[in-house]
Amino acid sequence: MKSPQNMKPWLLSGPAFVLFLVLLLIPLVMTFMLSFNSFSFYGGIEDVYTFGNYIEVLGDSYFYEIFLRTFLIALITTVFCVLLGVPEAYILLRMRPLARSIMLLVVLGPLLISVVVRTLGWAILLGNNGVINELLQSLGLITSPVKMLYTSGGIVAALVHVMIPFMIIAVWAALQRRDPSAEQAAESLGASPVKVFTRIVLPQAMPGILSGSLIVFSLSASAFATPAILGGRRVKVVSTTVYDEFLNTLNWPLGAAIAVLLLASVLVIMLSWNRLIEKRYTGVFE
Amino acid sequence: MISNGRYSLLFNALFTLFMVGPLVVVIGVSFTPTGYLEFPPSGLSLRWFAAILDNPDFIDAAWVSLKLGIASATVSTIVAVPAALAIGREKFSGREALQALFLSPLTVPTVVLGIAFLRLLSVLELNGTFVGLVLCHAIIITPFVLRLVLSSVVGMDRSIEKAAISLGASNWTVFRRITMPLIMPGIVGGWVLAFITSFDELTVTVFIVNPSTTTLPVRLFSHITQTTDPLIASVSTVVILFTVALMLLINRFYGLDRLLMGETK
Predict the structure, then answer these.
(1) What is the average pLDDT score of chain B?
(2) Rounded distance, CA B222 to CA B234, Å?
(3) Low-confidence stretches of chain B (pLDDT beneath 50)
(4) Which of A1, A24, A25, A14 is CA-nearest to residue B85?
(5) Which of A74, A86, A87, B69 fits a disulfide with A220 by CB distance 3.0 to 4.6 angstroms?
């Protein structure tokens, strides 16, 4: 028999635990089991257990291409978030308090605005008769519209816009703990701004860049709204494929297998990334 | 303090354009007097805002989203506050596993959560019901509430509680009169962030709605994938203005940086 003191934390977290057990753990197990069921067009979901769905997905170059495209889009999005987000976070930290608080609204605010709305903005910008094409044509830079909507490039542009606040938050958190006097010392000894940035700021930002990259990559790999609106059926990614299997083809077991593979690959990438970070940074503070 | 150089300010200006541009375009397009998406608009007209009133399905969807956000943020707060008190203060075996479980919806791809909820709700025959939506949204938004409440629980000074206990206050009185007021900023911040997250949620919701419980993001999404007309832009403009108003309110009373980045300074 446990003493009342030992029961207290479990009583307090009991309601949340029950909610998560019933609505998260059990459904995830059910989905995992569903992925082994088979499906026929007339009979629906059949209560048998096979590796058929996994063999179908892993053996088909169509699905292979979708997974490859998804992870490439996520990777390129992450690279751009680093290239743009790290300097921006540093610039923000060096601003005067008033300018900084206004800029924070501009940078972090979009995070709270619906992804559907933000992606609509990109659809208007990228279309064949869209803002960017019209502008380039009126400037005489191009003669016919450049195809940007329904391309992987268009999806990357919009995903960078959606994900970059996460990178800035992570880098900001890392840089905030830094000691600005090191930069001042370097500058007073004649180091150029570029040198100060690459030799002093960047190493201190590194933990933030690594954790921010992880967040951006995993969110981009599983993003749905942006690739669905800007890619449609023409540029399919894993999440839009799962959506089609569930709500159009109605082949739930196959959709579940694709989803399980997505979850597994995201988890593997996250865990190995974490190990990499730990290896790199243990010992630094000892 | 080192200030920003010319190139830094140029970079910042271009970055601002990148962040704000897509939103400005949506707002601009919504004022067009024509029947198609054009930017900049050839005139200023409120035609497409008036059109919202003729489309009850958008208004109905907005009501569903509003009620869903309030209900799920409240359910989530009710279960997350005691859980945060347990995780933040007590030492017990399983504490870290419990915290990892409550934060896990942030790690699992949303599309996986969507089909998992769909599977559960169709077995329970709750698919498409409002109750089903509330419960599923509560799961997705609990990590946000937990994190903010946890940070105020951990940062709290416990000496006032001890004083109250030594003066004979009951557990419930201590919680109601001392603990709760002290962690209130975290609770309010968490509730608001949870509400906004639920209000904007698409990927999970798209799997578990039916026509009578369609939320605003799902309505917008299915409209965009079928046609693009200025109506979609005017509805989006209303969403942007609503979110910005909420954002300014949070910024005034809580601090947007604190809400999204945790305690700073």
Answers:
(1) 89
(2) 16
(3) 1, 264-265
(4) A14
(5) A74
Domains in chain A, number = 1
Which chain A residue lies closest to B201 (C-alpha atoms)? A114
The pTM of this model reads 0.90
pLDDT at res. B157: 83
pLDDT at B93: 84
Instruction: Tell me B124's DSSP state.
Output: T
The reply to whether A22 falls in a domain is no
- Bridge partners (DSSP) of residue A40 are A44
Among residues 195-214 of chain B, which lie with CB inside 8 Å of chain A?
196, 199-200, 202-203, 206-207
Provide the pLDDT for residue A190: 85
**Phi-psi domain of A261 (left: phi exceeds 0; alpha: psi -120 through 50; beta: other):** alpha
**Searching chain A, which residue's CA lies closest to the CA of residue B106?**
A219
The number of residues making up chain B comes to 265
Do A226 and A216 contact (CB within 8 A), yes or no? no
User: The domain containing residue A252 runs over which residues?
Assistant: 52-281
Q: Give domain status of residue A106, yes or no.
A: yes
Nearest Cα residue in chain B from A22? B120
Three-state SS at A219:
helix
CATH no. for residue A191?
1.10.3720.10
pLDDT at residue number A284: 52
Q: What span, in angstroms and rounded, lies between the C-alpha atoms of B233 and B118?
A: 30
Ordered structural domains, chain B, with CATH: 61-261 (1.10.3720.10)
Residue A1 has a pLDDT of 46
